[in-house]
Amino acid sequence: MEFPVQTAPACARCGDVLTTPALSPLCRACRLAPPPFVKSVAYGTYQGLMREAIHALKYDRLHPAARGLGCMLAAAMAQLAGEAPAQMLVVPVPLHGSKFAQRGFNQSRLLAAEALRFLGKSHPQWRLTLAPSTLLRLRATESQAGLTPRQRRLNVRGAFSVAEPSKVKAQHILLVDDILTTGATARAAAQALVNAGAESVWVATLARAQRAQGFGRRLAFEDRSFESEDADDLELVGRAARGDAQHAAGPSSLHQQSPF
């Protein structure tokens, strides 16, 4: 089974496809309105099998899929190893209470916990602490699906707050979510953290929805059982840290169990 990844040059800040990479390492949106986060990375593109897997976890409540997806998120996070600070708080994007009651779990928190389990073995020197109660979602925002970029920004404006600002003051934050589309949610959440005194905010997601074309190469996956040894899964995380993942130069093939 194969998960799509981006092959075109990407914005050094938000990860979106660059339509004119020779002119600037940043996309137009990041040049005109720099986001409050340092950098955003993702494992793959939000299409095909990746989209199906995320939907299976979120809407079909296929919780076993979180392990394989969590390993992919760990691979995305590993792209920041050596560049991001050595000690960080890992903050999942929260759900509003009403959405949590409806779904019964926060997929971002579940994925973050699984990712940290892998990274604790592949990158033991990277001090990552899960801080799931750091951010609060103040209101039940409308689903971002189907909204225009401007509607998305307005939808999440002022939607987040930090529970205890003293706990994020001067801290480096790794914000984690399942999908980044226009970046409106990541921007709003990061801004709340910066306003509370965070030293820096970085972003890692499973998937990046692209606003331009440019993803044809795919990562190949072996169809293996979820009971396989962690050592097999950690190969993916280690290779991502060595530059063999999404933004590596030249072809690569990462092997990892499929959630399906």
Describe it for me?
This protein is α/β, with parallel strands linked by helices. The chain has a single domain, classed as Rossmann fold. The protein contains 8 helices and 9 strands. It has helices spanning 28-32, 48-58, 65-78, 97-103, 107-122, 149-156, 184-195, 230-241, and strands at 2-4, 40-45, 87-92, 127-130, 135-137, 160-162, 172-180, 200-208, 218-220. The strands form 3 sheets. A 5-stranded parallel beta sheet has the order 2-8-7-3-4, sandwiched between helices. Strands 1-9 form a two-stranded antiparallel ribbon. α3 packs across α5 (107-122), α3 packs parallel to α8 (230-241) and α5 packs across α8. The N and C termini lie close together (8 Å).
Short description:
This protein is globular. Helices cover 33% and strands 18% of the residues.
